[in-house]
């Protein structure tokens, strides 16, 4: 036989024998099957399993800490009432109706907020009478808010009479400024911070 044909044949035989020896030397072993003993369910898909998530129901895409609680910022909005009255009167001038309705809408928006209506009087007249008059003014504003379906449990009133004057003068302008009802309501909104992604747009 020509030696040129013999060399490739010998090479094939050598490779075959090597593979056969390797197969004989190592027996096939089945890979182990993982035995999962912990519940890795993550219902709100925030990356923290239910077993250690103390804030279930986190909005999808929210930035969370190791306990599964979303980071949040609190935003604040404020509304004020300032209603003036005629001398010795607790009748509300119609020009203040829009202001009262706006406050009712604000309370509708922020259901956790409450309002304290504060009534005042000028120093004209008897102090005891003015104290009762200031309460009647506060009640008049309360009645208007209740007309706009504000929950009465969220409304309180207080009358200060002439004990907290806004203007100390003894002229008609000062008296007019002191015959008033005021209120300040703060509404709070908690906004969850979204987790950063490659699609996040940074405001400049």
TrEMBL record:
GO terms for cellular component: cell outer membrane. Gene3D superfamilies: OmpA-like domain, TSP type-3 repeat. It holds the Pfam family OmpA. Residues 74-189 form the OmpA-like domain. Keywords: Cell outer membrane, Membrane, Signal. The keyword Signal applies. It is found in: Cell outer membrane. GO terms for molecular function: calcium ion binding. InterPro entries: Bact_OuterMem_StrucFunc, OMP_bac, OmpA-like, OmpA-like_sf, TSP_type-3_rpt. Residues 1-22 form the signal peptide. Coiled coil: none annotated. Transmembrane segments: none annotated. This is Outer membrane protein. The lineage of its organism: Bacteria, Pseudomonadati, Pseudomonadota, Gammaproteobacteria, Vibrionales.
């Amino acid at each position: 036989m020509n030696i040129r044909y013999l060399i490739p044949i010998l090479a094939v035989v050598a490779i075959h024998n090597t593979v056969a020896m390797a197969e004989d030397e190592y027996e096939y072993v089945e890979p182990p099957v993982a035995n999962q003993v912990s519940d890795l369910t993550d219902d709100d898909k925030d990356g923290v399993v239910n077993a250690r998530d103390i804030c279930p129901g986190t909005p999808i895409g929210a930035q969370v800490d190791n306990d599964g609680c979303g980071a949040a910022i609190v935003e604040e909005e404020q509304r004020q009432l300032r209603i003036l009255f005629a001398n010795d009167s607790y009748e509300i001038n119609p020009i203040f109706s829009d202001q009262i309705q706006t406050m009712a809408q604000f309370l509708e928006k922020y259901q956790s907020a409450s309002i304290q209506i504060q009534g005042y009087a000028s120093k004209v007249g008897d102090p005891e009478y003015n104290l009762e008059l200031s309460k009647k003014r506060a009640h008049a504003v309360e009645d208007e808010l209740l007309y706009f379906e504000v929950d009465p449990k969220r409304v309180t009133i207080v009358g200060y009479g002439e004990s907290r004057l806004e203007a100390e003068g003894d002229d008609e302008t000062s008296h007019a400024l002191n015959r008033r009802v005021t209120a300040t309501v703060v509404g709070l909104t908690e906004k969850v911070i979204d987790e950063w992604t490659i699609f996040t747009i940074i405001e400049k």
